[in-house]
Design brief:
The protein is of the alpha+beta class. It is built from eight helices and 17 strands. A hairpin with a 6-residue loop joins strand 9 and strand 10.
Length: 369
């Protein structure tokens, strides 16, 4: 009996020594979101991989994985808030050479660039008397687009802009390209008749034209002294800008999006410009998703850049948080120097409809549950 207890003590001592000596040297961990960019509140997976590269089993490994503070977990998953992040804990037992992969479905509703900052792994010894911890850094992130904003007043403004752009295209003689000739139907203007083709074929023929100049609209998102406390109204500005850009591109209009707002991952006080149409509207959404609630560069400098880069724009749409003196001055500057129509959309005018829309969305979610 004494010999058996002695052997048991020796075996426990050896296992304890091996566990403390190896620590986490044979443990590999990674976690990665399944998307780089996503719609707000759209589900996506985070894949977590834990591997024991050693031959001996590991009796206890605890993972403390950090998620962005705006993360929404499944109902059966709990997370603890720690220093501006949510931490989800799990424990594992790993056999020798075992690899375990788990996928966690999550949602993020808040616009912006959300970082997955890493995880802390803790391995316990054989007797549960000591622990060894190690932090694994992560460099992954998810860019969440702004919400779409549906409002009758906004859609009327965008519809008026669209009508003005189309009318201006056909009322003003743009550079045109003759694509083909066809038979005269009696409804075409006389100046479109091709007399050369008429003489050659013996019947009236008219030319068909294709405008060379594209319909384009400059959408300018103004940051008029926004600070860190203005994150909510900046989200609304980006939602209005997204709705406007998507509506205009769906009508075949090229959008030049300008902003003087700082962006995640870029230096401050630098104006940004993205040109996109229906086929690459994602570029516009990515820019709007990355805007930060911080003080931006000069509004006058931004307007000067828009006028230089987009000389052929048929119209301008300014989207601002508040109706300030600087915003009104920018409208007059664009109107005077371009000679085009300038529409102004102020986010403060849409705060009440936005709150009602959020409340309606919350009611729908509760009803669905």
């Amino acid at each position: 009996m004494i010999a058996f207890l002695f052997l048991l003590f020796i075996a426990g001592f050896l296992l304890q020594t091996l566990a403390l000596r190896d620590g986490l040297s044979h443990v590999r961990f990674s976690y990665l979101p399944s998307v780089r960019e996503t719609e707000p509140d759209a589900p996506f997976d985070v894949t977590m991989t834990l591997t024991n590269t050693g031959k001996l089993p590991i009796a206890y490994v605890k993972t403390e994985v950090a998620f962005p503070l705006s993360t929404r977990f499944p109902e059966d998953m709990e997370a603890e808030e720690r220093r501006f992040e949510l931490v989800a804990e799990n424990t594992y037992r790993l056999r020798g050479r075992e690899k375990t992969v788990s996928r966690m479905p999550i949602r993020i509703a808040k616009r912006g660039l959300h970082h997955f900052s890493g995880a802390t792994l803790t391995r316990g010894d054989f007797l549960g008397m000591a622990e060894v911890s190690h932090h694994y850094a992560a460099r992954s992130s998810v860019l969440v687009y702004p919400q779409r904003f549906g409002d009758t007043k906004l859609m009327k403004t965008l519809g008026k802009m669209n009508g003005d752009l189309i009318a201006r295209q056909f009322l003003i003689r743009d550079p045109i390209l003759t694509t083909c000739c066809r038979e005269y139907t009696g409804q075409e203007p006389m100046h479109t008749i091709s007399w050369i083709q008429t003489a050659r074929l013996g019947e009236l023929m008219v030319r068909e034209f294709e405008p060379v100049r594209e319909l384009s609209c400059g959408v300018i998102v103004l940051n008029d002294e926004l600070g860190r406390d203005d994150a909510e109204i900046l989200d609304l500005v980006c939602s209005l800008a997204r709705t406007a850009c998507e509506y205009l591109t769906e009508q075949g209009i090229i959008v030049d999006l300008y902003t003087n707002s700082p962006m995640s991952g870029y230096a401050r006080n630098t104006a940004r410009h993205v040109r996109a149409g229906r086929e690459n509207v994602r570029d516009l959404l990515a820019l709007l998703a990355a805007l930060l609630p911080q003080k931006g560069s000069s509004i006058e400098r931004l307007c000067d850049r828009a006028l230089r880069k987009d000389e052929e724009a048929q119209s301008y749409l300014l989207i601002a948080a508040r109706r300030s003196a600087g915003v009104l001055k920018a409208c007059e500057l664009l109107r005077a120097r371009s000679g085009n129509e300038v529409e102004l959309v102020v986010a403060e005018d849409y705060l009440a409809p936005a709150a009602e829309a959020q409340a309606e969305t919350a009611r729908e979610v509760r009803h669905a549950v």
